[in-house]
Structure formats: structure tokens, C-alpha cells
TrEMBL record:
InterPro entries with a match to the protein in the record: PDDEXK_12
Residue span of region Disordered: 16-42, 71-97
Domain PD-(D/E)XK nuclease-like as annotated: residue spans: 141-368
Pfam families in the record: PDDEXK_12
Name the record gives this protein: PD-(D/E)XK nuclease-like domain-containing protein
Biased composition (Low complexity): 75-89
Tree of life domain: Eukaryota
UniProt feature coiled coil, ranges: none
Amino acid sequence: MCSNQSRRIIDWLSSCEGDDSSKDEIGYPLQSTKKRKFDMNDATPVAKRQAIGIATPSLSRGSPERRNLFETAPSFHSSNATSRSSSPSKRQRSSEIEFSNPSVEFYSAFSLPPIRDEAEIPSWPELMNAIAMKEDSMFLAQTALVEHELDKICKNIGYCEQRDGNEDAWCELVVHPILLLAASLSRNSRYVDVLNVKSIDVYPRDLLPQIECGSSLPAKRVDYSIGLEFTTHNAWKETVRRLQDRTLNQSKNKMLRDRILCSHVEVKTSTGGSIEGRNQLALWCASGFKKLDSIWDDLHDGVVAPPVAPTPLWLWTGRDLQLFVAMRRADTIHVLDKRQWKISDKSALRDVLATLVSVMDWGWESYRPWFLRLLGQESVPLPGEVEEAI
């Protein structure tokens, strides 16, 4: 007599018998549905199935958390979280998007017509000085903690490269840590936030720029934004009552709507496509400029909007980092490729850190005052000041 185990196996094989349309438990056809003679010396039979397009993790060791960072799973931006499409990869499809209303144009460091004065682009000289800041003048008193953090980030850069880390790995192990370190070193650290905006859409959708070819609007996001605290909670509620969308930026998310967003960060792998990253930064930035127009219209009906302050944009592509500065002239957004880094050692990473800190300080000391003038709220109390209960 067959053992109970053998009987269960034979019964299972019998259930597989049928026509070629038989499906397995997740809906995929079995390659073989014919019953075969069972031999007691055979290993337990396993049904052969067609591959369903989910890649095997590239790492077989390490903690579950770290291993997940390097799986070649679909990006979190994808609407299909279970399988990868058979269409060409995103970096194969990527091309520069032709935006209109407003249009977006990219320039090299020396091809953009010069800025005449601050009236044309508010806060421009202060931002240029911040970007030109050298690390020697900022980190004269380097602490052991800062050096230790830089060593860790450098090690993680090598780790991501060696293990072919995906975007999540670069975000979690490299970019987010250095952004947090920069925020902690800012002289305005209590008012500066590093905001994760990976899953946040532009709101309302009419802030999205149009596409010249007439195709549908792309639903693109960035990874991080540098946010500045606006004012006390009571003063913020009084201000947003005057705004149609009840938010200070291009998002209705409760974690963001009371923050002034002064800079944005997008992360790609070394093979992830810098053009795709530029498209994402351009869309998010263009929506932000249109939001500033919307705020002005809500507060000054019928009055022509003044020039707007520039927005620094950071594109990390593996070890490579580009700092763009976006400005608006008339109906065109000019995106200037201002600085580039190849992060090959701790010295280069320290220079990146110094520039991040300097730009964050510019955000609080120059961009926020300009934003308050746009709102007509120059005298609002500082965040954290004692306020009367309502």
C-alpha cells in the first residue's frame, strides 16, 4: 500500500489532469498538466510554471531590511506593484519632456543670459553666494561626529555601487542621511525639515504644466523637499483661510501644507537615467511656481504677480550630483546647471555637505522672508513662539 504521503501526491497529480487551459493558483497556465506514473523513489513532484516576470533579489545574504533595498522590484512610483511590465524599461523610454504653460528650458553654466539685478530674480545674489560657499570656511571646527557620519555615508556609497543598489537603497543609505546631517548643521536647524515626498502628488492637478505634444500630463514626483517652518500654528491657520486650496505649496498633504518648500531632490541610480530625473524635478518645480501665482491671485485679485525667487534642484545619480537652479522669466522656467560633483572620496562629500548647509541657510534667511512678503505676512511670529490659545 502507498503511504499517506504518496497517496496525497497521487491525488494532487490527478487534480492536475485536464485541458491546456488549467491555471495555477495565481492564474498562470501550467506547462504540463498530464499525469505521470509515480515512482516511490522519485522526489516530491513540483509543477513547472512559466516565469511571471518578477526578478530574483540580487542579494542572498544580509538582514531582510537591507536585502529588500537591493531587490530589483518595480519602482514605488509604478501603479503596478506586483509585476514588471514587458514594455521597454523607463530609462529606455525616457526623453526630455517638452513642457508648456510654463515651458521649461535647461542651460549649461555659461549659456544663460546674466541676471541684471535682484528686482528681476529676487534673492538671486544670496543664492549664488550660498552655492559658492567653500567647505573650509564652514567647517573650521569639524567634530568627530560629523567625520564619523561622513565615513559611514562614503562606505554606503561603495556598498550601493558594489551591490547594484536600487533608488531606495541610494535614498536610505546615502542621500537621506546627508540631507539630515546638513539640516542638523544649519544655523537654523530648528526650522529646517527634510521632507519625504515620494508618494505625494501635485495638488490641485491644474498646477501641472501642459505637454506641447498634447499627450496626457505625467504623474511624476520627486524624492525629498527642503521645507521651512512658516509660523505658529494659529498664525498659519489665519493665513490659509485666505487661500483657496488651504495650503502653502503644491500639495494638500497635512505633513506639508504648512511648510514653505524652497528646494527639491531627486535620486536615481547610476543607470537610472538622468533625463528622467530632470523631468521629475522640472514638473515638481514648475508646479511650485504656478502655486506661487495661485497664492498671489488669492491675495491680490487682478494685480500682476511680481518676480519669484529661484529654486535649487538636486539630482543624485549614483556617485554623481548635479545642482540646478530654476528661475522664471516671463512664461519660461530656465533651469541652470550650476554645479556638479563626482563623489569619489570624503573630501568631495564634505564639499557637498557644505553646499547643502549653505543652501538650507539661504532658504531660511532669504527665501522665507521673500515668501512672507509675497503673502503680505512679514510680521508673523516665528515658529515656536508662545501664542494665545484660541
